[in-house]
Recover the amino acids of this structure.
């Protein structure tokens, strides 16, 4: 066999091998997506429990580091009670707000009628009124049905709350055995070091993301609550909590956090000036904090491009609903960090990253150690 023929044969083998790997990788990705969707009722609460566990553990370790006389068990107890108290308080605020909305439904219906009359007068549509639309589209019945569905959802959250709490308890119970399990899973010292580095990078990225998002959301919530209370918006505490939660959802959450209270203000307020003032306050808080303070605090802990953030939000939202949207950014970071460890999938991690360098150590330098095969 001539040298040219031998080189051609070698190139064909290499091309075929690359094609097979790419095909297998694609099929494995599709199978993983299907598995995530089919097991969403099982995996979504567990994933949320892991993030709650990380929040509580990070909060406890932060308090533990404040003073050597502050034992970890006490810090953990305070952290657990704080998180549980916030969750229970949020549920009570939701239930109380639903009762207030039902109680004031006649007033809101009158205001909607005035709004539709004004729109009809400006557009020349004589048949446009809330009563007509309600008769044609059964708006009132749908609202009542929606409230019933909402109440059922709250019950579902309560039931899942206990399941998530159970997961969190067992995660803390198993936490002490993690190092020993790593020793048995990775007997080779180099592999164990690499796996430990991956786990540390994932943990630090998620903890920083969650802590920064919590601080940023809290700042925006406080400013928004002061503005809504000063302008006299009904159920300001509820809307403040909605803003706090929605700010964890990238991009779309911030827009919804402004739009929802403003739409409610249009129904409540007679003055367009008060609605415009409220919109300016909420948007101003989102814009200033989101474009000045948040980038400095967040740094490169996520290292995801803006396009990837949007795509991740769509994909995880479709797979796991609200939980997927809530956890879309940190889940995508986990995937990026894991994919960066294998030569076969390293290019995917590069595409997911913001700067083309899915750095593992947080030092800005590419990693030299990768796992040989996938």
């Amino acid at each position: 066999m001539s040298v040219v023929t031998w080189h051609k044969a070698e190139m064909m083998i290499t091309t075929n091998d690359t094609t097979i790997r790419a095909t297998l990788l694609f099929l494995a990705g599709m199978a993983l997506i299907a598995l995530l969707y089919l097991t969403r009722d099982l995996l979504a609460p567990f994933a949320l429990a892991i993030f709650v566990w990380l929040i509580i553990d990070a909060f406890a370790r932060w308090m533990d580091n404040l003073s050597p006389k502050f034992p970890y068990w006490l810090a953990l107890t305070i952290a657990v009670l704080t998180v549980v108290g916030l969750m229970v308080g949020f549920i009570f605020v939701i239930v109380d707000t639903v009762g207030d909305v039902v109680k004031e439904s006649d007033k809101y219906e009158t205001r909607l009628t005035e709004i539709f009359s004004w729109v009809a007068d400006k557009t020349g549509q004589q048949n446009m009124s809330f009563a007509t639309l309600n008769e044609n589209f059964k708006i009132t019945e749908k609202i009542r049905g929606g409230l019933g569905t909402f109440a059922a959802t709250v019950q579902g959250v309560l039931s899942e709350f206990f399941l998530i709490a159970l997961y969190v308890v067992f995660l803390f119970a198993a936490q002490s055995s993690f190092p020993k399990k790593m020793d048995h899973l990775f007997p080779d010292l180099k592999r164990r070091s690499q796996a430990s580095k991956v786990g540390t990078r994932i943990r630090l990225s998620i903890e920083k993301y969650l802590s920064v998002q919590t601080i940023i959301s809290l700042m925006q919530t406080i400013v928004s609550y002061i503005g809504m209370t000063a302008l006299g918006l009904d159920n300001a505490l509820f809307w403040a909590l909605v803003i706090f939660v929605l700010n964890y959802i990238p991009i779309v959450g911030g827009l919804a956090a402004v739009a929802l209270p403003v739409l409610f203000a249009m129904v409540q307020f007679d003055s367009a000036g008060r609605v415009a003032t409220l919109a300016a306050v909420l948007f101003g808080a989102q814009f200033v904090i989101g474009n000045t303070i948040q980038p400095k605090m967040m740094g490169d802990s996520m290292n995801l491009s803006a396009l990837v953030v949007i795509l991740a939000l769509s994909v995880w939202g479709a797979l796991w609903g609200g939980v997927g949207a809530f956890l879309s950014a940190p889940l995508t970071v986990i995937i990026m960090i894991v994919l960066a460890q294998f030569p076969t999938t390293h290019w995917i991690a590069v595409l997911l990253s913001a700067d083309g360098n899915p750095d593992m150590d947080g030092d800005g330098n590419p990693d030299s150690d990768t796992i040989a095969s996938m």
In short: Residues 209-299 form one domain. The radius of gyration is 26 Å. DSSP finds 14 helices and no strands in the chain.
